[in-house]
């Protein structure tokens, strides 16, 4: 028998081949093995030599793992028992990551360092002062770019759109902002209110002075629909989306008090009162159910005072609070908040334990309506008087009541009073609440299972669940989403560069903390420097806004030129 080894052009691996086999050599051990070439395009198979210390299995050999033996961590050939007899020579061919190794006459491609570093040319924007590497953000649950994370990187065959097509996909606002040679605006343009996409969320609330009518001596089980029907559909009451009916309930005892109804103007409210006074003069007593009801013209001051009875140390001027000076001799009369945490806890307890609240038991929808009125009329615009802990108490009660109402509807506890309409009213009021952060609204959206399009109607940004350290910042209404994400990308990239420039000890501490939080905003949380604890709980929304907007301006000042 005469045999020699030849190079298989499809695998670029040395395999033993037979040239001629005589009849008397049919018992040759080579007949017991089939050296069939690998399939076309299968890539390089690993060496089956028993002397190979480590073998990288290619896709073509992954289906034959059951035939590969292993002794002391060494990969063996199928006939590894015949050591030194049937092994092919050591494979010195370069190992690739699954790419075809067909032999061609073309020269090899030029060596590109960008493949080894995971940075592509189109990801770099060069300026006179610095080079900015755009690091794409991968939201939770998505696959990362294999081409930039593999040990042996794959070739990047993704199509890169021309610059003109990219600008066509952007909004006009972002194109105007980045219409410079470097693609980066000047600092004064980036901070211009025309482009700056953030604002203080709680400041979106405004005091309203609508006309108010008060209904006294109403039955404690009065429904909202009965109040509207009592005043008449022709009355110019505020739109249903504005929640014009406020049935006052004591949050501690759940006792129903009076009802207030808001009208478009003061004249409309006055006409509604005159109508019922004429009915009394003509001998027709106004009744709600079987009880005579008094109808009188009221004001926003009376409504706010009854809706927030424990707010001490203030005087209401319309819907705006006027704070009295601190009185050290009577500290119980000083302002401590519009609502207390105990009130919010009791509001939830009336629903969780209804048999201990006789009034709430007979009128199960009242705690939910009380919360809707509280969220709607809460003076969120007074940010220097509302603390982080007070807002959290209101938000926690909102989430608990939304969860309890959803469960009651599913169990059909009360199909007359606990309805889907009440649930939609509660969710809509919470999503429109200007005092809640985007992250808080994202939690409510998750409880209500809202779609992305429904979230957009409430001015929610993309990846709202990643706004974890923004206690005051909120997206500006009407601002394109790509502008918001462009600013966040600038903050993320600049804070990453700042982190790398820190000393080793400080950089290590930040890296350890970053593993415990979301990095969509980069190291923005390190720039703000919140100190969590009692001091943070007592921090006002105004102080949080000052810290966050100052941090954004500092970061943009380092990332952009001041021209």
UniProtKB/TrEMBL annotation:
**Residues annotated as transmembrane:** none
Region called Disordered, residue ranges: 1-62, 77-108
Q: Where is the composition biased (Low complexity)?
A: 45-60
Alphabetical keyword list: Repeat, RNA-binding
Q: Where is the composition biased (Polar residues)?
A: 1-29, 93-103
Q: Which GO terms describe its molecular function?
A: RNA binding
Xref: PANTHER family: HETEROGENEOUS NUCLEAR RIBONUCLEOPROTEIN-RELATED (PTHR13976)
**Name used for this protein in its record:** RNA recognition, RNP-1
Source organism per UniProt: Metarhizium guizhouense (strain ARSEF 977)
């Amino acid at each position: 028998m005469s045999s020699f080894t030849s190079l298989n052009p499809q695998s670029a691996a040395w395999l033993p081949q037979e040239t001629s086999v005589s009849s008397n050599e049919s018992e040759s051990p080579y007949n017991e093995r089939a050296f069939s070439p690998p399939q076309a395009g299968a890539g390089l198979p690993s060496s089956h030599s028993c002397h190979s210390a480590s073998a990288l299995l290619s896709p073509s050999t992954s289906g034959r793992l059951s035939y590969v033996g292993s002794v002391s961590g060494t990969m063996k050939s199928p006939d590894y028992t015949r050591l030194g007899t049937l092994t092919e020579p050591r494979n010195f061919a370069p190992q690739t990551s699954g790419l075809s190794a067909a032999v061609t006459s073309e020269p090899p491609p030029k060596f590109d360092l960008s493949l080894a570093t995971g940075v592509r040319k189109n990801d770099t924007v060069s300026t006179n002062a610095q080079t900015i590497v755009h690091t794409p953000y991968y939201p939770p649950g998505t696959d990362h770019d294999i081409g930039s994370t593999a040990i042996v990187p794959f070739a990047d065959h993704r199509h890169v759109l021309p610059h003109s097509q990219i600008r066509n996909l952007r909004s006009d606002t972002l194109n105007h902002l980045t219409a410079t040679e470097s693609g980066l605006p000047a600092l004064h343009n980036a901070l211009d209110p025309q482009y700056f996409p953030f604002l203080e969320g709680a400041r979106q609330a405004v005091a309203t002075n609508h006309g108010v009518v008060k209904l006294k001596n109403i039955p404690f089980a009065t429904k909202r629909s009965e109040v509207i029907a009592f005043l008449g559909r022709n009355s110019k009451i505020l739109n249903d989306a504005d929640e014009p009916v406020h049935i006052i309930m004591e949050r501690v005892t759940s006792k129903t008090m009076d009802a207030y109804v808001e009208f478009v103007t003061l004249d409309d409210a006055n006409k509604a009162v005159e109508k019922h006074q004429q009915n009394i003069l003509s001998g027709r007593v106004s009744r709600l159910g079987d009880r005579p009801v008094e109808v009188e013209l009221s004001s926003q001051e009376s409504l706010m005072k009854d809706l927030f009875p424990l707010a001490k140390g203030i005087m209401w001027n319309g819907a705006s609070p006027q704070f009295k000076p601190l009185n050290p001799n009577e500290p119980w009369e000083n302002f401590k908040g519009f609502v207390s945490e105990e009130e919010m806890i009791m509001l939830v307890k009336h629903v969780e334990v209804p048999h201990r609240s006789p009034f709430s038991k007979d009128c199960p929808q009242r705690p939910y309506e009380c919360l809707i009125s509280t969220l709607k009329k809460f003076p969120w615009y007074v940010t220097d008087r509302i603390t982080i802990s007070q807002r959290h108490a209101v938000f926690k009660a909102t989430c608990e009541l939304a969860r309890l109402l959803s469960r009651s509807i599913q169990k059909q506890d009360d199909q007359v009073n606990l309805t889907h309409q009440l649930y939609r009213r509660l969710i809509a009021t919470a999503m429109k609440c200007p005092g809640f952060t985007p992250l808080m609204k994202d939690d409510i959206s998750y409880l209500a299972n809202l779609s992305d399009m429904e979230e957009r109607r409430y001015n929610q940004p993309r990846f709202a669940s990643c706004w974890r350290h923004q206690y005051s910042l909120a997206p500006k209404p009407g601002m394109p989403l790509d502008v918001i994400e462009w600013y966040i990308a600038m903050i993320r990239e600049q804070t990453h560069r700042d982190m790398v420039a820190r000393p080793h000890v400080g950089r290590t501490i930040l890296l350890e903390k970053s593993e415990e939080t979301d990095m969509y905003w980069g190291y923005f949380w390190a720039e703000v420097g919140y100190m969590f604890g009692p001091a943070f709980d007592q921090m006002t929304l105004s102080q949080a806004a000052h810290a966050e907007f100052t941090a954004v301006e500092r970061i943009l000042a380092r990332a952009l030129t001041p021209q």
